[in-house]
Amino acid sequence: MTFIIRAPLPASPPRSPSSSDEDGGSLDSEDDTSMLETARPAKRVRLSSTQVITPGEMVTDDPQWMRGHGTYTAPATTQTTIHSSLAGTLQRTNKLLSIQPLRSRYAPEIGDLVVGRICEVQTKRWKVDLGASLLALLPLSAINLPGGILRKRTGTDELAIRTFFSEGELLVAEVQSIYGDGSASLHTRSLKYGKLRNGVFLAVKGVGGRGTVVRSRRQVWTVNTAHGGGEVDVYLGVNGYVWICKRASSTAVEQGKQIAITRLEEGASESMYESRNEYIAIETRREIARLAGCVMALVEGGARVDEEMVMSAYEASLDLEAEEEEGQEKGYLGGEQGRRVVERALAAGRQ
């Protein structure tokens, strides 16, 4: 390999200062100053609740705003500059700015109706998975005893604790209180709460974002299904867990018993903690699957999941099935069929 040494280039002569250069320099400095002034971020906050903000992005540098959850102030910058620490949408409460994450775990609130799964049995309580950061607790004293007996729980009840709920079983309950660490305490002291069976379980996103279960007037209702499917119960847990099942036919009211409104606990029969599923007719199974398909179509379409939207989607699916030609697959609510169902449900909701 050969190396070639070239002669250095001659140095350029120094420029002498002149009045024109001085004038130009003053103009350049003014231009630079004006450019810096125009490049500064405006002291305003993003007011759009649909625009997604990425982590580290500046929200505002106006000192009138206060930072909330999901925001921080960088040490290298002024204390008035607020940045986002999450990927989500902006929420403004008066002068408080916070970031609602696109996806997050369920945060329990008192009064929420939730669907959970028993994951651990202890001496006097159960630990329930709600999809939250911490497991919820269901004390033995917070359930109805078989037969509606009102008495203090004894050691015999503690020994028979697995006869009420065991690992892996599903239940619907209400959040009674919140502990200091953020975990929830549940109770099932109502006839509409308790063990779940004879149905199908769905796990969708909880509160927050698009395509989630929202808090509404009713989280539990009964659907009179078509095609001879009978009555089907729908449980929309605020935590994003959904249960759709055949309506139980062994309640005290249907058996003809007259119970005072102040003594509803007497309707708690011995079969309320039964773990075996009953026989479900083919027509009922088909309608349960249709309702489950409607819920999943709403989630995939980014629509809210509540009683109004689920019923609108169910009616839209029945209309589309009646319009389908002979030979087409009926009952499938995925893909293009699911999008059509969501479009009709949204259109019905705007009317």
Task: Describe the structure in brief.
By secondary structure, the protein is of the alpha+beta class. The chain is built from five helices and 17 strands.
Radius of gyration: 31 Å
Assign a percent range to the helix content. Answer: 10-25%
Distance between the termini: 83 Å
**Multimeric status of the protein:** single chain
Poorly predicted regions are 17-43, 251-262
Structural class: alpha+beta
Mean pLDDT: 80
Strand-and-helix sequence, N→C?
HEEEEEEEEEEHEEEEEEEHHH
What percent strand? 15-25%
Total helical segments:
5
Shape, please? extended
- What is the number of beta strands? 17
Biggest sheet character: 6 strands, antiparallel
Structural topology:
Layout: H1 19-39, E1 52-53, E2 58-60, E3 66-67, E4 71-72, E5 82-84, E6 88-93, E7 96-101, E8 113-121, E9 125-129, E10 136-139, H2 155-159, E11 170-178, E12 184-187, E13 194-195, E14 199-203, E15 220-224, E16 231-236, E17 241-246, H3 282-300, H4 307-323, H5 336-350
Parallel strand pairs: 3-7
Antiparallel strand pairs: 1-6, 2-5, 4-5, 6-7, 8-9, 8-11, 9-10, 11-12, 11-13, 14-17, 15-16, 16-17
Helix pairs in contact: 3-4, 3-5, 4-5
Task: Kindly list the characteristics that best describe this protein.
6-stranded antiparallel β-sheet; alpha+beta; single chain; 23% strand; 17 strands; 4-stranded mixed β-sheet; 5 helices; 351 residues
Write a structural description.
With 351 residues, this protein is an alpha+beta fold. It is built from five helices and 17 strands. It has helices spanning 19-39, 155-159, 282-300, 307-323, 336-350, and strands at 52-53, 58-60, 66-67, 71-72, 82-84, 88-93, 96-101, 113-121, 125-129, 136-139, 170-178, 184-187, 194-195, 199-203, 220-224, 231-236, 241-246. The strands form four sheets. Strands 8, 9, 10, 11, 12 and 13 form a six-stranded antiparallel β-sheet that branches. A hairpin with a 3-residue loop joins β8 (113-121) and β9 (125-129). The relative contact order is 0.09. The model is unreliable at 17-43 and 251-262 (pLDDT under 50).
